[in-house]
Amino acid sequence: MPVPTIEWKSGKIKLVDQTLLPGRFKYIYLKDLKSLWHAIKTLKVRGAPAIGIAGALGVLLASEKSGAKNYKAFKRELLRSIRYLASSRPTARNLFWALERMETVLLDNDSISLKELKMQLKREAFSVVKEDKLICRRMAKRGVSLIKKGDRILTHCNAGGLATADYGTALGVLFEARKERKGITVYVDETRPLLQGARLTSWELKRNGIKTILICDNMAASLMQKRGIDKIFVGADRIARNGDTANKIGTYNLAVLARHHNIPFYVVAPASTFDLSLSNGKAIPIEERAADEVLGFRGVRTAPSGIEVYNPAFDVTPYDLISAIVTEKGILKKPYAKNIKRIL
Amino acid sequence: MPVPTIEWKSGKIKLVDQTLLPGRFKYIYLKDLKSLWHAIKTLKVRGAPAIGIAGALGVLLASEKSGAKNYKAFKRELLRSIRYLASSRPTARNLFWALERMETVLLDNDSISLKELKMQLKREAFSVVKEDKLICRRMAKRGVSLIKKGDRILTHCNAGGLATADYGTALGVLFEARKERKGITVYVDETRPLLQGARLTSWELKRNGIKTILICDNMAASLMQKRGIDKIFVGADRIARNGDTANKIGTYNLAVLARHHNIPFYVVAPASTFDLSLSNGKAIPIEERAADEVLGFRGVRTAPSGIEVYNPAFDVTPYDLISAIVTEKGILKKPYAKNIKRIL
Predict the structure, then answer these.
(1) CA distance B119 to B108
(2) What is the pLDDT of residue B305?
(3) What CATH number has the domain bearing residue B156?
(4) Same domain, yes or no, for B117 and B151?
(5) ipTM higher than threshold 0.95
(6) Which domain holds residue A320?
(7) Cβ contacts (< 8 Å) between B214 and chain A: which residues?
(8) Within a domain: B336
(9) Interatomic CA distance for residues B295 and A212, integer angstroms
(10) Contacts of A315 in chain B (CB under 8 A)
């Protein structure tokens, strides 16, 4: 039973505070851009499609709250809001994609009334949410064809309902497999440093009645060697024109291990994840986050003070290691450069 | 300045309680076998060579405390103690190796006085400690030849002074490189679930003035791809006749990543780590530990309740992925089956 991760509610943005999970499931209501920016930055809302939605709803929030009396003032105000939201996190393409959609509506409608323009912006933001729900279900239907009965599947981080409006990308495929009674077992990387796998993915899978086994990230190779893994499914934060894919740190590790053990490695991501302006993954901006995330967990310090840390939030998996990319428009195979262009 | 990790002190076993590090450096004094067994089991003392020493000193403790009046009773008592200590942890070869040394002294001396036998056992246990110090320094001298000026090195778990009597296996090599002013940078895997890398290795490296950068285990591939790693050095818990090597979970991950990125992968381990009774690594018993270690850290719960866990404490790296094995008797290269036999 999908529950909304993020939606518009009586003039506010309502979202699940994911930093409290799995201990507590709690909605928070945001009524200003600063709180939203902070919620994105601190991962109260996270997952590429979900922060795209947050971006669209953020622009809607700015629009609804604006007291501007004319288009020029309104435009200046909203463009500033868009820039501000864009500064929250650098890697996921979907945030910029959603902000660009809102910006296009703003810029293309300079000759209608402000009231009408605000209505249009609202319609566009609602479309972003509605489409995400539809797209995730479409990807799930397509992706499930890759899953055989009894498959042992490994996933990383959280590409579930919590990373989207309500259904998920990679996990959507697994929910669909469950519906079709394929009897899958899903191993979940805990995904240090912020443990989205342990905290969010295992919570979602369990709620959906899927057999779930949690591992530490460094146990993946042992798992492949000793127990056997049939497939890997992950989400994506940004995909370049050649198929190079940025996703949560540790994804590239898995892709290399998958290659070594001859395990198919699948990425599940909506078209909004693709950045056709980048010829390859080297140009994808990778967010580096605070050392504190690695030095401990929830206030429990685990390393000596004064230790330097390397803490990239994402890595880039070269296209060559990816077996297929599941999108709402079809399952893409190599050569990606050609097939991405054709389908998108 | 090496400090003793474990030693005999006025009839007790004195050891650093490693579960308190890096917050607190504290010696504890054990005067009965049950406390020692518990200290090994809960990783107050850990690291293959160090638990070998713990085993030898444990037999010494049993011997010193024995009130047996004749050889037969004494032998029965000590054999029981040896079996008990052997049940603490299954994977590290060094524990059994040290217990076998003590057992040999016990069984070979059935015709001397109990007082004399106890003296012999004490001498043997002290030899185990003394030899470890010597052997680690010898491995360090040999291994340092593999390190070039400015090398960026990655290590996993803790193969340092804390894993031995006082100097370390893999880290011993790095300490030697530091002495020779090779200007190395060492990246340290935090090593979930018990974080020996974050807690112990970064603490040891920093104390020794080595440039240290901490990462989460899943960042290793990104590190290799983006920053570059020149060499990997790890310890070992048991090495089979063909060179297959059991070491802390995550080692095999690294070895696969190293192969993919063309990075030399070195194991540093004393001769006591080799188990010539095993033709390959498949037969090495791998300890699986409690789910709680993965479900949280130090009382902070991070996963939903009722989630199943896979928590092997070690994995086995196939010999083919290992570039060389540094021992006190020389640096072993392929073919290992032949060279291990020749040198040991």
Answers:
(1) 14
(2) 87
(3) 3.40.50.10470
(4) no
(5) yes
(6) 145-343
(7) 294-295, 303, 307-310
(8) yes
(9) 13
(10) 219, 221-222, 225
CB contact (8 A) between residue A256 and residue B252? no
Contact with chain A for residue B97, Cβ under 8 A: no
Q: Is residue B14 a part of any domain in this protein?
A: yes
pTM over 0.95, yes/no: yes
* Edge-first strand listing for the sheet containing B185-189: A308-309, B211-215, B185-189, B152-155, B231-234, B265-268, B324-327, B330-332
What is the distance between the alpha carbons of residues B9 and B28, in angstroms, rounded to a whole number? 11
Catalytic residue among A132, A166, A237, A244: A237
Q: What is the mean pLDDT of residues A107-121?
A: 97
CB contact under 8 A, B190 and A302: yes
Question: Cβ of A294 under 8 Å from any chain B Cβ?
Answer: yes
B302 and chain A in contact, CB less than 8 A: yes
Q: Please indicate if any CB of chain A lies within 8 Å of the CB of B221.
A: yes
User: pLDDT at position B1, please?
Assistant: 67
Choose, out of A219, A286, A316, the residue to mutate when testing the contact with B (most B CBs < 10 Å): A219
Q: Which residue of B has its CA nearest to A282?
A: B226
The reply to whether A110 and A33 lie within a common domain is yes
Strands B314-317, B245-248: pairing is antiparallel
- What is the least distance, in Å, from the CA of B108 to any CA of chain A? 41
Question: Are B234 and B266 in contact, with CB atoms under 8 Å apart?
Answer: yes
Same domain, A189 and A319: yes
Decide: helix, strand or coil at residue B139: helix
Chain A residues with CB under 8 Å of B258 CB are none
- DSSP 8-state class, residue B199: I
Structure tokens given for A30: 């945001």
Q: What is the DSSP string of B39-95?
A: HHHTTSS-SHHHHHHHHHHHHHHHHHH---SSHHHHHHHHHHHHHHHHTS-SS-HHH
User: Cβ separation of B300 and A297 shorter than 8 Å?
Assistant: yes
Q: Pairing mode, if any, of strands A314-317 and B27-30?
A: unpaired
Q: Is residue B124 one of the residues assigned to a domain?
A: yes
A102 and A160 in a single domain? The answer is no
The residues pairing with B265 across neighbouring beta strands, listed in sequence order, are B232
Antiparallel, parallel or unpaired: β B245-248 and B238-240: antiparallel
| Distant-in-sequence, close-in-space partners of A156: CB < 8 Å, separation ≥ 6 | A189, A191, A197, A217, A232, A234, A247, A248, A250, A251, A254
- Which residue of A227, A302, A306 is in closest CB contact with B206? A306
A230 and A330 in a single domain? The answer is yes
Q: Does B162 touch chain A (CB under 8 A)?
A: no
Encoded tokens for A22: 């799995």
Active site residue A237: yes
> What are the structure tokens assigned to A55, written together?
């971006």
**Are both B165 and B131 inside the same structural domain?**
no
Q: Supply the mean pLDDT for chain B.
A: 97
pLDDT tens digit sequence for A55-95: 999 999 999 999 999 999 999 999 999 999 999 999 999 99
In terms of Cα–Cα distance, which of B80, B23, B82 is closest to B56? B82
Min Cα separation B189/chain A (Å): 10
Rg (CA), chain A: 20
Radius of gyration from C-alpha coordinates of chain B: 20
A190, A159: one domain = yes
**CA triple B158-B217-A229, angle to 5 deg:** 120
Does B202 lie at the interface with A, CB-CB under 8 angstroms?
A: yes
Q: Residues A84, A150: one domain?
A: no
Angle, helices A93-108/A71-86, rounded to nearest 10 degrees: 180
Confidence of residue A1 (pLDDT cuts 50, 70, 90): low
Stretch 16-55 of chain A: residues touching chain B, C-beta under 8 Å? 22-23
